[in-house]
Amino acid sequence: MTAPAGRAPTERADAARNRLRVLEAARRLLAADGFTELSLDAVAKEAGVGVGTVYRRFHNRPGLVYALIEDNETRFQEAFTRHCADGAPSAHDRLRAFLHGMAELVDDNRELLLLAEASAPAGRYRSAPFRRHHEQIAGMVTELAPGADAAYLADLLLMAYTPGLFDFQRTERGWDVDRIKGGLDVLIDGIGAAEEADRRLSHQ
C-alpha cells in the first residue's frame, strides 16, 4: 500500500529519525570513550534502538565510521553555504573561511579520518568529499587568481588536511589549529599576491 499523496511513508521518517539518533549516540560514545570502545552494539544501546536496526543500516563499524564522516561533511557544507550567503564575501574571504572550516572539521574528526586513511590509504583521493572539496577550492582559486593553475593549487592546499600529517602536527609537533590556519592564510595571500604581481607585469 502506498502512502497518501503529499505524505512521506512512515517507515522512511522513522528510518531518518533512527539514523540521526544512532549518529548522535556514536558521537557521544566517541567523545566519552574514543574509537577503540565503539561498537555497533554499544551504539544501539546508547541510541535506544534495536541492534538489528543499526546493523541493517550501517552493516559494520567501518560503515558507521563513513556515515559519521559524511554527516559531518554535510554539516560543514551547510555552514559554508550560510557564510557565502552572508554579505557576498570575496573569493579571498570565501577561500579563507573554507580552509579554516576544513581545519576545524579535520581536527574534530581526526580519529575517524585516521581510521579511514588506515583502511584505504589512497581512498581519500577518490572519495566524494575530496572531489567536492577539490572542485570548490579550484573554483575559488580561479576567481582569486585567474592565471594560476587552480587544479594543482587545490591539490596542494588539500594536502594540509591529510589525516596522518594533520594528526602529526597536532600531536607530535604540538601545533594548535590556529597555527595551521595561519599557515593556510599565508598560502592564500601568496596566491593572491602572485596574481597581482603578474597583473602589474602584464601592464608594464
Spell out the helices and strands N to C: HHHHHHHHHH
* Terminal-residue CA separation: 74 Å
CATH class (first level) name of the largest domain: Mainly Alpha
CATH topology of the largest domain: Tetracycline Repressor, domain 2
State the domain count: 2
| Unreliable sequence segments | 1-11
Q: Summarize the biggest pleated sheet.
A: none
Number of strands: 0
CA-based gyration radius = 21 Å
If you average the pLDDT, what whole number results? 87
Secondary structure class reads mainly alpha
Within CATH, the superfamily of the largest domain carries the name: Tetracycline Repressor, domain 2
Helix content: over 70%
Q: Tell me the strand percentage band.
A: under 5%
- Overall outline: elongated
Give me the CATH architecture of the largest domain, please. Orthogonal Bundle
Total number of helical segments?
A: 10
